[in-house]
Structures are given as structure tokens and as C-alpha cells.
Design a protein that fits this description.
alpha/beta
């Protein structure tokens, strides 16, 4: 894919997020940089605690940035913004949360939950238009208008996540951060929600940042994948490039954890364990993220980068 001539929608530059508790501090995100292009799905992948959700929450301005910048369509959106710019960012960048139960107000009807953004941003001329928008979007996510009078506790996890999706889509956003939107759902429901996300992307020209820990799901929905470990980027590549040529040992460990549908093969397979202290010596030559070619970025020191380049392209060419 020709990324050079594509429009960059979102740019994360040298992002740090540090959480402080009294005198103690913890760096959850460490010098992370990547671009997301218009109309694509970029996935952030890593194990629990790797900093994926923290990055997503920094983009929607829930977590403040400790260092670095985030740009949306060339305009800086991290740090302090005017009220107008802040509202603009909230409307154009929406988030779908991981836990569909915790992210919905239990005391509000589904109609109010979906309408809340419309009320806050005055996105309707009259009550008739507001109701039409809400009824249209509830149908689009596979629920019925009669569900609008109910409360979140009356729905299954999959239905609640559809409500969360409807709440985001009704705002007519341009960019959506989907934070593990299917990890709390049954396997059969996951495919339906993923198909809905892809359908909305096609119909509404949406751009997604998709956060997940399961590489098999990510393969289905992503154009490119960013692999993150302990707040640092390990590898970035197009989906098939990454699956065909995983280079970083951490990426290989994630790949080895993907379940095999055949129980006999699943029993025989060996898990590859990532042990950074044994696999890297960064005491003299620290790592950096570099493009090996083919849009394949990887973290390593000089010696490792040369080795990765030879493995991928042969003879360093």
C-alpha cells in the first residue's frame, strides 16, 4: 500500500505517559511514535499492562501526556485546548470502551444514552430529527427501536456493546478508538461486532485505532499492526507482512500464543517465551525503532537491526 501519498489523520510523536502516586511514579508509555492514515485500521497489540489502553485514552484526552504530542489532522490536540477545539476533538474522536457494562449509565434508558452526545453538541434541529437519528443508528447496530425504552441491565454483553457502538456512531465521528471492544464477548458475538465495525468503516469512511491482545482477531480487522511491550514499540508492519515475517522475539511470542483449532496440534505446539534480559544486551548500544524497508519498523540496536534486515531481505539489501 502506498502510504506516502495518503493523508495522515492522527500522529503520535514521542509520547510518554507517567502515572504518579505520591513520590513514586510509573512510566506506562515510553517514547511512542506512529501515524494513522485516513480510512485505515491500525491495531495496537500487546499483553495486559503493555500500555495499549493508556495510549488510546491519551488520544481521547482522558490520560494527560507527560511528554510528546498528539496531532489530529495536523493540529495539536494534546495539552490545553480552547473550548471550541476541545469540543471539536470530542465530537470527531469517539471511543468504544472495553467493558460494555461499566461504560453505560445503568440509570439511563438506551434512548438517553445514545442521545446524550446529540444533546451536548446540539446535533439536531428538533425532537423529531433526534429520535429519527437514534432509531436509525439502533437499527444499524442490529437492535430494534423498542429497545430504546429499556435499561442496560436488561441486555446481554453483546447487545450492550452494540449500544456503545451506536452511542459513538450517532455523533458522526471521523476517528474511533476501539479499546478491546470484543474481549468481554462470546466468540460467536465477536465476529458480529467486528463485521459491524468494518461495515461502518466502509459506509462512513471511518478511521480506527483498534486495541487488542489477541493477534488472531487483529489479523481479521487491521491494515497495520503496532506491537507494544511495557510501553515501548517493538514492531510495526502491515498485517500480512507481520504475520509472514515476524522478526522481533516479542512478536514471535505473541504469535506462538495464537490458539490452533486442531486439538492435537494445539497440544504439541511449543510456546515461545520472550525473556528480554536473556535476549538483548543494551548496556552499551541502546535500541531504537528503525524502518527496515517495506514499511516494516522494528526496535533493536545496531547489531540486531542488521540481523533483522538480513533475515527479512537477505544480505542486508
Amino acid at each position: 500500500m502506498d502510504y506516502e501519498n495518503r493523508e495522515v489523520v492522527l500522529s503520535v510523536r514521542n509520547l510518554d505517559v507517567v502515572f504518579k502516586n505520591g513520590k513514586r511514579s510509573f512510566k506506562a508509555v515510553d517514547n511512542v511514535s506512529f501515524d494513522i492514515y485516513k480510512g485505515e485500521t491500525l491495531s495496537l497489540v500487546g499483553e495486559s499492562g503493555s500500555g495499549k489502553t493508556t495510549i488510546g485514552r491519551a488520544i481521547v484526552r482522558i490520560n494527560p501526556c507527560s511528554a510528546g504530542e498528539i496531532y489530529y489532522k495536523g493540529k495539536k490536540i494534546s495539552g490545553k485546548l480552547s473550548r471550541k477545539d476541545d469540543r471539536d476533538v470530542i465530537r470527531k474522536i469517539q471511543m468504544i470502551f472495553q467493558d460494555p457494562a461499566a461504560s453505560l449509565n445503568e440509570r439511563a434508558t438506551i434512548e438517553y444514552i445514545i442521545s446524550e452526545g446529540l444533546y451536548n453538541f446540539h446535533l439536531f434541529k428538533d425532537e423529531k430529527e433526534r429520535l429519527a437519528k437514534v432509531e436509525n443508528v439502533i437499527r444499524e447496530v442490529g437492535l430494534l427501536p423498542e429497545h430504546l425504552t429499556r435499561y442496560p441491565h436488561e441486555f446481554s454483553g453483546g447487545q450492550r456493546q452494540r449500544v456503545g457502538l451506536a452511542r459513538s456512531i450517532v455523533m458522526e465521528p471521523e476517528f474511533i478508538v476501539a479499546d478491546e471492544p470484543i474481549s468481554a464477548l462470546d466468540v460467536s458475538i465477536r465476529a458480529q461486532v467486528l463485521n459491524l465495525l468494518k461495515k461502518f468503516q466502509r459506509e462512513r469512511d471511518l478511521t480506527y485505532l483498534f486495541i487488542a491482545h489477541d493477534l488472531s482477531i487483529v489479523r481479521f480487522i487491521s491494515d497495520r499492526i503496532v506491537v507494544i511491550y511495557k510501553g515501548k514499540i517493538m514492531e510495526i508492519a502491515e498485517t500480512e507482512e507481520l504475520f509472514n515475517h515476524p522478526l522481533h522475539p516479542y512478536t514471535k511470542s505473541l504469535m506462538s500464543a495464537i490458539p490452533i483449532p486442531d486439538p492435537i496440534l494445539e497440544k504439541k505446539k511449543k510456546l515461545f517465551v520472550y525473556e528480554p534480559d536473556k535476549m538483548h544486551d543494551y548496556s552499551v548500544n541502546p535500541p531504537r525503532v528503525e524502518d527496515l524497508g517495506n514499511g516494516h519498523f522494528i526496535s533493536g540496536n545496531d547489531e540486531e537491526l542488521e540481523r533483522y534486515r538480513k533475515i527479512r531481505f537477505g544480505n542486508g539489501n
